[in-house]
Design goal:
- The protein contains 6 helices and 17 strands.
- It is an alpha+beta fold and 369 residues long.
- It folds into 2 domains: 2-204, HIT-like (HIT family, subunit A), CATH 3.30.428.10; 209-365, HIT-like (HIT family, subunit A), CATH 3.30.428.10.
- It starts with a strand and ends with a helix.
Length: 369
Amino acid sequence: MSSKKLPAGVIRSDATLMDGRVIRYYDTKGQSRTAVDQRGAEEQPVIGEMRLDPLNNEWVVIADHRQGRVFLPPKESNPLAPSRPGALTEIPESDYEVVVFDNRSPALAAPASGFRVIGHPDFSSPAIASAGKCEVICFTSDYEASFKDLSHRQIRTVLEAWRDRTAELSKLLYIEYVAAFENRGEEVGVTLNHPHGQIYAYSYLPPRTEKMLEVARAHKDKTGNILLDDILSRELSDKARIVTENDEWVAYVPYAARYPFEIHLAPRRSVPDFLALDESTSDAFAPIAKEVLLRLDSVFGVRMPYIASWHQAPTRTGRDLLRLHWQIASVRRAPGKLKYLAGSESAFGAFMMDLRPEQSAQQLRDVAL
């Protein structure tokens, strides 16, 4: 067992699971982590492959070993609960604050030494190993909770875990981009209802990141400015789409929102990634993050399905162009009604919105907390 001191009084303790995977505990109360994984050893799945879609030059990961992964188990069979006698889970300890462990059925895995993504892929490019890293982050041991239910202290600990994993994963030579995200609700494909998220480390730039980098570079060449800085300035000037703000963060509905309820949360200071957040900005995140998610759940008085994804600069390129922000997108447009991504959105990527962003921002502001 090894341990490491992190900011905000967080201690990370590492242990090994039955198949050699690493589990990391993030604690603030001086806990001692000594529990051993009592489950029988099993082999890790072999690495899959990435194939190039020649129509748009985008990599597609083929991970057929994931077909047998856990799908919506009942609460008593929750693999993300703390272990107890007769019910051994992914977490050997009998309690935890925040944990991160290597995914048991990863779509991306560590490649052989010398791995490289093809620089300029085209129609003739062969399949390559699906190199990368997939981790699970559990926000709390409370099965009934959600991110919005966490205390400010717990959210701060989650933020430290995101920062720590970004720092460590970014050092791997085959990693180009680190993405932290949470899916909540079966409406967006959740297969485990325990409050948790994912951390994916890609060996290539995901298509959306690549496009954002291209647009940000063109904006910098034209204006000399960082695109997201200018976007934030416009939102603060217009005011119509601001949801809430504090001294360090601003939450707003984007000018051209793609989803009925979409909120972006960005730090006022221009930072490329989690690692660049200072103490005051980190401390100010929890109150506004909790408020934003409380407002989202209170618009219709129902639990809103959402995808909350962190966008940040790549590990090695574009660090002077892209900046950190949190995108929360919900497909619910009214009680009992969802926005389905139909032909225009799914087939062509051309989004159509039935609700003006200014309207959804007003609805979010009108929530009485």
